[in-house]
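Question thread 4412

I'm putting together a teaching handout and wanted feedback from people who do this every day. The idea is simple: show students a protein as raw sequence, then show them the structure tokens that encode its fold, then repeat with a second protein so they can compare. Below is the first pair exactly as I plan to print it.
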Amino acid sequence: MEQEMNSGLDLIMVRFGELGTKGKNEKDFIRALGRNIKEVLKDFKTLKYQIAHDHIYIYLNQENFDDIVPYLTRVPGLSSFSHCIALPRDIEAVKKKALEIVNKVRPKTFKVITKRADKLFYMNSDTVNREVAKYIFENYKGELKVDVHEPELPLHIAIRQDVIYVYDAKIEGCGGYPVGIAGKGLMLLSGGIDSPVASYLMMKRGVKLEFIHFAAPPYTSEKVIVKLHDILRKLNIYQPDFKLYIVPFTDIQKKIYEVAGTSYAITIMRRMFIKIASKVAKGHNDLVLCNGESIGQVASQTLKSMNAIEHDNAYLPIIRPLATYDKTEIIALAKKLDTYDISIRPYEDCCTIFAPKDPTTAPHYDKIEEIESKFDFNPLIDEAIANIRVMHVSKDEDEKDEF
């Protein structure tokens, strides 16, 4: 019985939001969210969990709620949550707890909001609202008014079959879907501002991510890899472990400039990125490719360029979560994710270092075919894939390299 489990207990009520629309798959989504919450909070050893059809309940067992808040706000799939007290179905106990909350918060305005899921409870919602508000006015030593529109303190009372929950604030979460529920994708990670933000948006839609980066030593610094590691450690808040595939791209890069000249170099280079990423993704069961492109932001991100880069070249769908974002919006999200200051470190990737002065914004596919017919890139591509370095980045461990 809920009363036997919950009465008088200090707990967190987690709401699902969008997961409630998933129909027959709802239980799978909720179980995935429960697993992800447990993983994120695993350092809080005494927490106990109950996964129900309408909420997830986390029993604090003397853990500090304020310490847990920063973790829960960053769990994709979690709509909102509240710090609750579970009480017996006794209106007097509810009144005393409500007054205790008001005395702690000391608001100027408040409102009692009762939801009676159990319609057999002996008082209806309006009666509970009036009874609790009356008790507060009679016992509160301070200035206090009711504000039904924008109360400083919304005081929530949820009446269930065996228990009554009392809480004040709803704290917003990420929303979206639990990471991993939608499958796995491969994100092209450059080290700039955009791709970490795109990564967050993909994870928020339930996609578990792996990453691929194209390195061109000695033209690019090893400090770029450190930069990528630090970015991924920030994103570990949302997904606890990542794989980063580091592709040695120097020989391909030099050959591109030899056969393509300058105006088509970026187009050909990005076609090679997609070709290699597609092969890596298929080899590791990734369902889609993802990147941080925004329409029109640079020469390779015009619609004509995107079309030419993908044409007869992409073996998997490419998702661009930032396609309609402007740079100001992207920067704001990067700062919120705490990746911005890392992304602007002065260590450049091969896209930036080899950027030509006159890139075409409207490449023609017949010209691309002409350039790519001059040299068979496939042996270089196979060699690059065979020599990929894999970096593991985890919130619990330092990175490990495999060769």
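The second pair follows. I'd like the answer to focus on this one:
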Amino acid sequence: MYHVVDNICRASGKCIIVRLQPVDIHRSEENTFRMILFSYDIFTAQAAGGISRCMIELMRALASTTVDWQLWAGRHGNELLPAALDDPGIATRILTTGPRTAGSRLAGSLRNEPGFARAVRNLHPSVVHRTFYPMIDLLPRTGIVRVETLHDMWDERAASAGSRRSRLKSVIKHRALGRADVIICDTESTRREMIDIWPALEGRSTVIHLGVRRLSASPETGTRDRPFFLFVGRRGSYKNFTVAVEALRAPALRDHDLVCFGGGPFDRDELALISAAGLGGRVLQMGGSDDRLAGLYEAATALLYPSSYEGFGLPLLEAMIHDCPVIAAPLTSLPEVGGDAALYADPDDPHAWGDIMATLAGDRVQADALRRLGRERAAQFSWAETARKHAVLYADIAR
């Protein structure tokens, strides 16, 4: 059971959510509607990234439902979307307006928003689902049902700490959410944080978790000779990379390395941190394909995820679906996603991380139990289920 909008009233040009009612996600989708139109926004905002990947996965899964949808992709520089064109369930639903064009997020909005507004007027979709918070919004304020997905509230935290860039991004986000009829939050943690900061948005919000699927059917093998822990993605700020490095200094972990996948090469400060810890040659960075990442997950002793803030934390589920134990911080959305299938340690305490890492490295029984729990946990987050919940939501709000 989850909550979707039961009734929408429009008065004085404003959208008002009257109340939310529980809906059975397993009911048949009896309500018919014209079409869901997804916007170009995230594909101009990201060359590659988690949000654009997740939106593609949602659309891929929706192709197996009764939902009629299209993506107005416009001109963009996203690197993930062209690969999705190999999927016939997606390729026939993508509307493009010209060759791929890289550029800033603002340039993408200036280039694409007028065409997207014309497409909305011509196609008359039942629901417009904006894939990211638009820099420029030329859609009419009435006569259109809008959906926005809220992925996290990090910019609001950074803005409160004095970041001007985050303050501007927060203003853009708040404006987009304020125009939405329904706000889909990736986690209850994000929804609660949104309500704390913008309580007026509570009545139009709901939660639909993201899904996960195996990254590769042919993971690379034999990538490392020594046992290792894995750190995935960006390493700056709240990701707490320092904790992972310091934890590896535990005497019981002398035979282990730390492999960092993605996030770019180590910068000067990171190299200095590794050198000061006496771990030269034992902390490595690499990039590559999903086949390589899947192979690293399956070979790693555990995924280390000491982040102090996440809107979701998809690498936890990616690790679990590839039989990799997970150690994470017990903060924000991570316990909501990891449940009892992960081990948790204080992200401010490298010694606690080192102790848990050493215990897991030396206890095969516990590691195997975590792998089993992880498979069971990941199975609860399928893209098919995510798409089905979106389909029921679209049908209800389009009535």
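Top answer:
Good format. For the second protein you could add a caption like this: The first strand starts at residue 2 and ends at 5. The chain has two domains: 2-211+382-397, 228-378.
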